[in-house]
Amino acid sequence: TVEEVHTRSSRQQDSFDIFEDEGLPTQGQTAPSEPYAKYVWNGKLLERVKDTVHPDWLMYIIHGFCGQSKLLIYGRPVHVTLIARRSSKFAGTRFLKRGANCEGDVANEVETEQIIHDASVMSFTAGSYSSYVQVRGSVPLYWSQDISTMMPKPPIRLDQADPYAHVAALHFDQMLQRFGSPIIILNLVKKREKRKHEKILSEELFPAVINLNQFLPPEHCIDYIAWDMARYTKSKLYNVLDRLSMIAENVVKRTGFFINRSDFFCHTLRPDERYTQTGQTRALLSHLQTGVLRTNCVDCLDRTNTAQFMVGKCALAYQLYALGMIDKPKLQFDTDCVRLFEELYEDHGDTLSLQYGGSQLVHRVKTYRKIAPWTQHSKDIMQTLSRYYSNAFSDADRQDAINLFLQVYQPSESKPHLWELPTDFYLHQRNSMALTHDRRSYTYWWSEGILSYLPLPYDEVPCEENMKKVGVRRVNRYDESIDTYTEFFKPYELTSFDDTFCIAMTNSARELMPKTVGVDPSPFTVRKPEETGKSAVIGAKSSKEETVVQRKTAASAPPPPSEEQISSSSEDDSEDDRDDDGSVSQRSTPVKLLTESGESVRTQEVWDGKRADTNTGSQFAYLGQNQHKLERTEPSVLENAINVVPVSCFTTDSIYEVSSPQVDRDNREVFEGHVLTGLGQVRSLCREDILMYREYIKNRYM
């Protein structure tokens, strides 16, 4: 009832607001009381304790992938985050979990979200960020593969006839409820085969989609895109990624993406035709993503990851354009930005492939671009063998561990042991042992109330049913759950900037940008293969201590040698060779010793171990020498040596009165620029800013 909800929220306020007595400002926060249970992996384990302990003690975990990198755009930090959430329903390993169960949950279902955050303003309220979501999952049919024959590709078989697409209807009903419309299916399985293998799935999925679409309104029908990606890869006449980029462009325009701010004035003054065609649902001062792309092949690993990368790359261009980072919503390959994003997606694909298939990716983006090195073929063979070994010998034990952790199987004295079960089919197919009394209609196959809110997802609309799931609690505005600055920097602890994750994370300027002088520092400039940052630094150490030392001495160190000067020997050997040659060491500083007459006697090398300290001492010595310049030809006079003049810039300076200094126009413009940046309004860069940034990059990273 309403009174129970009010009493529960009041109790949460009293127990959570620990700063109210200290006079710190508090604010109300509306947050879901329960997470989305489909992607929580320890939900069953927490059921026994969540009613007895405080909610802060409950730690909900997900299974999947999380990666973050920093993209530097002329010194402006942009955090690129990739989060993959694996479904806990019908979860398992490659050959043991295929298709869907009787409740519409599919195997290997992963929701991937890419978040772009303008990190120059670390605030959820004043900052700018954007998000795009896409999904992968097995073909929603009753199908499996027999692994008893020990074949690399066991034959695909349909376990149960489903002429009215009942299981597909349950699956797409879940997607409409969570993502809204349009639902776009990208089916990458093979169409032409000498022996029917993957084609069996396409022949069953397409009629199921046709059957479901005839009952939906035309504007909310499920889109079905079938494309034989493997056949296109073997052909020399077609470019696989060009075809995928066309599909991605169409998908992103239809679904749109989320962004928490309205359009910039530059988008109104200089509108881009492709950006204005995106089908975003516009809310108050923001844009929403409605609908989702669902990609699948047979395993949902190699081909699916490449297709998702191309869609994510297209969405990344639109996100950066919407945040005011680029002038056109288009990104090209071989740029620092796309290479950074490609590495994130390869790590994302490797992790998901290890969890489901037992090995890393076999075919990567470079494979489909046909620029992979010749050694990649042998690596692909090893990954294939590793995947085959894992599927044949270790997947059964992994499946038992997953069933036990998710509480799909609960041990009991009256039940047989987990390893004694001949199959776990009945554990995941709960309705197979009894007839369901509430069988859903074959024509009205969606849940009640979904169509009335489309294209918005039903889970996010403020209807009466959803408001019952939302609780209101009162928190302090400095709480870590809503204050990014406090969560990241932890001002109440003794921390170091070098230990923060933003320093250690992958940095486009440090790891991808070329280290040669005179190169365009923009991360959107196409690089040649020999200009990449990783090929220029061959013998660089990757330890944390070396990174800290390089960062501290980057401003005073000389430029690095070219590729021709870098040998295959270690850095220690090369330093010994330079010392033996009698040349001046990089860590020694020449200091001039002066006599009383001011003549230079000799130059001596002084080594202090720290170049930065030596430079600081030299600067102080230089200031001391030039503070009181005297003509040596004249006799020294005490009045000339001691020159006592007011050094304050204030006209009147006392403990009672201080006149404010006159601030010139340039300083006022700098201050106004900082204030506008905090408000989210960034002025355009001029030529002096670009030159200053190039000088900064050259001194710090080269």
UniProtKB/TrEMBL annotation:
The keyword Membrane is annotated on this UniProt entry: yes
Main location: membrane
Subcellular location per the Swiss-Prot or TrEMBL entry: Endomembrane system
Keywords: Hydrolase, Membrane
Record carries keyword Membrane: yes
GO function terms (MF aspect): phosphatidylinositol-3,5-bisphosphate 5-phosphatase activity
Domain SAC: 1-358
Region (Disordered): 515-601
Pfam families tied to this protein: Syja_N
Gene Ontology biological process terms, A to Z: phosphatidylinositol dephosphorylation
GO cellular component, one term: endomembrane system
UniProt feature, compositional bias: Acidic residues: 570-582
InterPro entries: Fig4-like (IPR043573), SAC_dom (IPR002013)
Record PANTHER family: POLYPHOSPHOINOSITIDE PHOSPHATASE (PTHR45738:SF5)
Name assigned to this protein: FIG4 phosphoinositide 5-phosphatase
